[in-house]
Structure formats: structure tokens, C-alpha cells
């Protein structure tokens, strides 16, 4: 059902984000190690920064998953109600 309020009531697929972040984390760790071993410190640093960003994202994802069904909806969680008021722009 489209209500026109999707951006404000959108839900994130946290489990998918979790698995994609874990996949990216594995590649970032692998890239950091390989580039460090072959003597490419710039690329190793870039992969290391990416590793850090992915780790922070994983922490946020896990926090939201632990907060319960408001952030991790299942089939038994009803959709959000549309906002009571609508802004009319000229």
C-alpha cells in the first residue's frame, strides 16, 4: 500500500545489510592484508579505512537489530500508520 509517506516511514532490511557488511568486511580485511604484503601501502591504507567504516556500520546495524521489531520488522509487525497531517507545498 502506497501512502505517499514512504521516505518518513521506510524500514531498512537490516539482515541483508548485516550480510552485505560482513561480505564487505571480509574483502576489506583481505585487501588490507594482500596490499600490505605486496608493498602497496596506499591501497592497504584505503582498504584499512574501508575496514574501519564497515566496522562502524556493523556496530550500528547490530544496535538496531537488538532494539527489536521497531527496527527489525517481521511479518507479524504491522506497517506504520501514515502521518496524520500532510504538508501542502504551493
Strand percentage: under 5%
Number of helices: 3
Oligomer: single chain
How does the major sheet shape up?
A: none
- Using the alpha-carbon principal axes, give the shape: elongated
Helix content range of the residues, please? 55-70%
Strands, total number: 0
SSE sequence, one letter per element: HHH
Written overview of the protein:
With 90 residues, this protein is mostly helical. The protein is 60% helix and 0% strand. It is built from three helices and no strands. Helix 2 (14-37) runs antiparallel to helix 3 (41-66). The protein starts with 5 loop residues before the first helix and ends in a 24-residue tail after the last helix. 6% of the residues are buried. The mean pLDDT is 81.
In short:
This protein has 90 residues and is mainly α. Helix content is 60%, strand content 0%.
SSE layout and pairing:
Layout: H1 6-9, H2 14-37, H3 41-66
Key phrases:
90 residues; mainly alpha; 3 helices; 60% helix; elongated
